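Q: What would this chain look like folded?
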Amino acid sequence: MAENSGSSGVFDTKKRGSVKSKAEYRRVRKYYKSADRWRVERERRQRVLEMFEEGVSYAVIAERLGVSERTVRRDMAKIRPYYERKVRSCLRKLEEKKRAKVEAELAGKSLSEQYKLLTRMLIASRKLVKQREYRRSKLTVTIDLDAAFAGYSAIKVEPKPPFSIKYPFNISFELTGKGTRILVGGLTISSE
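A: My prediction, written as structure tokens:
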């Protein structure tokens, strides 16, 4: 039976001694970074981005970090698409009505600032939607006497509005002070 050593990718080094040295350059070697090296590169890229957003040139960034200018350019080439993808995905998630308003707010800001602002907006909108989904049948109003005497805001409402009401709706009033909680009274509202 004849063996085919054509495109299999495995080289027979036992039968022909010179095949290995001639074909060694064709082997694809995989390179995996260690966790420490990956962490160092990630920290460097974050510092490159911070300095770039401050308006520092590539040459000065390279000098400060002790790397070549080409390394700084390569880092920026890897950072920029990452933040651009993040910004685009956040924009897609926003409602169409708000997009023009949000894009006006984002104008003139750096990519990382745009990403942070958009994530804050998305988190706030998700919390608001989640609160509106719940129908509440109970509201608790707490007055903190210690905070009132100290000159701080003393009224706390749980759960925080907005929410829809489910009848019968109960409102209870509590006073707190010096570690004690006293139920003052309550009110029940029916739908009729």
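The chain has two domains: 35-130, 134-189.
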